Amino acid sequence: MKKPILKGIIFDLDGVLVHTDEMHYQAWKQIADRIGAAFNREINNRLRGVSRMESLEIILENAKPVSDAEKLILADEKNAAYKKFLETLSEEDVDGDVRMVLRELKNRGIKLAIGSSSKNARFILEQIKLTDFFDAISDGNNIQRSKPDPEVFLKAAEFLMLEPAECAVVEDAYAGIDAAVAGGFYSVGIGDASGYDRADMKIRRIAEVLNLVNP
Ligand code: BG6
Ligand code: MG
Hints:
Radius of gyration: 17 Å
Strand content: 5-15%
Order of helices and strands: EHHHHHEHEHEHEE
Number of strands: 6
Strand order of the largest sheet: 3-2-1-4-5-6
CATH class of the largest domain: Alpha Beta
Number of domains: 2
Bound molecules: 6-O-phosphono-beta-D-glucopyranose, magnesium ion
CATH superfamily of the largest domain: HAD superfamily/HAD-like
CATH architecture of the largest domain: 3-Layer(aba) Sandwich
Shape: globular
CATH topology of the largest domain: Rossmann fold
Largest sheet: 6 strands, parallel
């Protein structure tokens, strides 16, 4: 897609603004080790952007079958382990450039939203003290279908009162780029997704987001 004249930018949270992706990995690893499921960082990359229950299904591809009741217990256990990691998060876990970029985008009149599959998004934003930068938060609590479905981003655009074609999505997940493309957004791949050919723009550092809008 050709770079549009942007009025809004929707940021994924985990793996884009803060490295909770490593905490997800460590928490799932504890569960996978306990149930004897083979799990590594390559499999973990497939969990980026997908919901908690869908992540569990991917992990269980390499484990003995478990009942639906047990799946709920495992998902709760993972979330408890993950939340212990989240308790340790602070402002210092946000890369230096993130605050500068968000502040600069706001100065340039761009509306900002979060588009995250996580049900912990608001808690994380509070921990890292970024909540106030955002005009809207669309997360795992207001969607039925997680990425690659575009719902979370469509909701974010709706909350901002903007059209998808007026917004860019910044994502580290292949599933997130697919969701952005499906929703008609300009897609920006960073981190794991910086090598994904479906992304309209690929960046190495968050500061490159500033190239999307005029000073
Ligand atoms: C996404 C992560 O942001 O949130 C996924 O990339 C995760 O890996 C998903 O599974 C759901 O997170 P939570 O916090 O609701 O378990
Ligand atoms: Mg992510």
